Structures
1.
Amino acid sequence: MMKLLKKIGLILFLSLFFINNGCKKEKCGCEGEVVFELTGVAGYFNYNEETKFASFSDADSQNSYYSAQFTICDPYDVWDMITQYPMEKQVLVWGRVSDDCMKQMSYMYNNLYVLRVDSVALDPINNK
């Protein structure tokens, strides 16, 4: 019985070690590898003035089951750029996208990304 408990303990320890080491900074997060770029993608910002948290969702995913969500990297650095437009206004966004480290925890997070915003403009077509 004691050997069985030791084996179970060893398995749990190794599992925790691999789970906690899953997120490598060079592969995910704001300092991670760029997986694709947004070039004038239409969508909406969501931001909180109090917490300075910001995210972006593209307009195409607003009406679909699969909705990509982009957490804004370093929101303090681009705060004035993203808050110059009200959240209900559709904007065009340019930036570099990396995988969110949460993707390595579970397949349920496969739609999460982080976005380093380079520029933002009001979408002239959808804001007449």
Note: The chain has one domain: 23-122.
2.
Amino acid sequence: MRTSSRGYLESVEFARKNMAKKAAFGFNTGLDLVRNAGREEAGAITKRIFGKRLLGGEYTISAKRARELADLGGWKTRIGGQAGNMANDAAAIGVRCYVHSASKSEKIMRLFRDGAMVARKGRFVPAGKAGDSSVPPIHFVLEFPGDRIILSHDECAFSMKEDGEFYAAIKPLAKKIGCFAVGGFHLLQGRDVEGKVAGIAGRVLGLKGENPEMKIHLEWGDFQNVKAMEATLGLFAPVCDSVGFNEKELERVSAYLRLRGGKYGRAQKMLEIVQEVVVHTSEYSFALSEKNQKGKLENSLLFASLASAYKAVNGRAGNFAELEKMARNARPRTEGIREMKKFERIGFACNAAFAPSVACKPKITVGLGDCFAMAFALTH
């Protein structure tokens, strides 16, 4: 396994050749209101809302609580949601992005980069020209060293509201789409979550039928509803080519499925449900696959680690030239190197690859997992 700047440089060249030129993203876009809060302030705010101090994770809040948080002031505005983050970061690299956005609020649309398109009147138009006066779904983000807390009031995601214009506009383009990267299921609420997930799975499979080569990647999330997690596991994950988790998400879904063993053993058992598993942490990432070869997986992991590190340091995603420049001096995290030695001693019954994270001093933490997921999913 490559752990020098040469490995990161080679991954950039790999990505230049293999990254999807066009990709689709769904299903959640929103507006992030971000506050650089210390742990004490973050704890005080969450205690006021929930009656206890929270250390990290994502939680849903009421409209009343959302108004109270907005009144605090001092928030910085960013694009939000898994689909919003992945699409914006892909556009920075040069990918033409077709975005499913249930909300087309001008406050969200104006934050998209050039190259991000949304559906209007049967065709895709630049996101910046598609905005309306509607109220956007909001995610309040409390950032502090080492973690963050997300407090979401997102009616579109709570109901998995769909953009009918998107499906009509994307179907004629399906044969040219290299990857459809999706997320947002973790915020789904309500009574008929199974029917909602099944409907979306059917529509995505319909697009896959138009283009069997289109890769479907699901980025998991911090599920708020057990029934939504059950439905996503049973109805949507099996139709995907790959599923991405952070370490907490893998731990939670493993506990629900009663999977035994350490994180690597549990991840391997997930291959009974999905074709490929990728796990990303702040220190390292790994991928297990029944189909893709180790070399491809490793290059995608290294490139994704580099892309997310660039965003962490600069507060935005980088293009190929910027990523190549960073790669020349990139070094792996010491903790990742130590974990890699453990990984190499395991006898996996599948294709397996590992990459230490790039050592850096992060400026931001929100959206780094989405950036990693995009860079991984679109490059193999």
Note: The first helix runs from residue 5 to 18.
3.
Amino acid sequence: MNDFYYVKDSLTIEINENLLSETIKDVINGLLFRAIKVNYVKVKELVIKTPNSQVSATPIVNENGIYIGGQTEKDVIDAFFRMLVKAEPIEFNENEKIVGIPTGEYTVNVVAKMRILHLCIFPETEYINMKRTVRFAGILGYTHVIIESWGGIEFKCLKELGWKGFTFTKAQLEDIINEIRAFKMEPIPCVNCLGHASLSRVDIGKHVVLDQNILLSDYFLKYGWVWNFKKQKVKDLLKEMRREMCEICGDGEYFHIGMDETYYNPGSEEEKDKIYSYITETCETVKKEGRTPIIWGDMFLNSQELDAPRVYYSCHAYTSVTAKKMLNAVPKDVLIADWHYRVGEYPWKTSVYLNKMGYKTVQCAWYDVKNNESAVETCKQVGTLGVMVTTWHGLVLQAKNLEAILRTARGALGVGAPEWTDGTLQTADLWRKVLDVGDDYSLYGFTKSQITEYTDNFIID
């Protein structure tokens, strides 16, 4: 068998009619170095293949062509891009352009059924980089993308929930959602229904609502950090926010209700009971709205109880008693997002505990290499539903977060993560291919300029 299937100047692809879109065409063009003219033939068969290629039970490339089949549309599109990202430039000159696609079987050993990317829209978030990140995740085989507003989305129910003049337009949001769906990923809407009510980073001091209208202060507790869940008008507002986010994201199975880093200790048992009841009420309400709730897990975990040091583990329940009561308030059919950003050991103690208590979980890491690896290994050893890569404000400081997206995808699909240097180079290579940004130096690479405030001392808090 030859090492490559050679494509010279043009390529004809027979592709299932539900898989073809302008997004997919553009990404294919980029991965072929914008050097090959691609002709598309829509078919009803669930395949992506070259004409006259032989039927295969597994996704395969040989010297005669490409045959990518599968049981679902997601299987097929993922396998196709798993193959196409390996395309190599063989010869480009004025007479001919030749691209080589490595031959072999493009199978995977799936470790994580759910491969989730969590994206936040800040006022500083650039639409074009959000779009490029979605495409990057799409070609790497992610299954879900969480969309959370940090003041970057305008809400009809309360205009102060978005920073005036700094929100994505309706057309931009629609485009992002269409990009997600082009890769057969599910958009997951998110509204933080308890803490993080400022929709701003805690150490910056901004508050999207109160900085624009301090007369809305009665909507909040804890200096504006926590929603005043005891007021019906707040519950009604959060319900409307969820409805609008569902409208933006479209149909889907999940809704992320947040509830991390609440840092609210009401003192009396009576007041604590109100929080427990509110957690249960919110979960049940979201289920009645037709979605499975996802909830951050830190408020249900106590570090001493689990022998999980807080210097590594994000366990934010004040006492073991509070942790157990908080957890008991969560229905068993809610998916718990177990997040820790400094844990390198595996399996994660918290995930073992939550699994023992009968909850389904996903392991959520950020950008640290060992953290990403331990999340995947925990998923594998404990048998959880999947893994999540969070980005937070780090998407503005691209490199480390993008490499984490690449590494986690490789580990979650059992195809092996790249070496450190290769990870950086592979990330940059794919980043430039997935979207043509035109003649704009500031959009090349990960940051606007080569000399930036971004350093290796990238701070989590």
Note: The first strand starts at residue 4 and ends at 8.
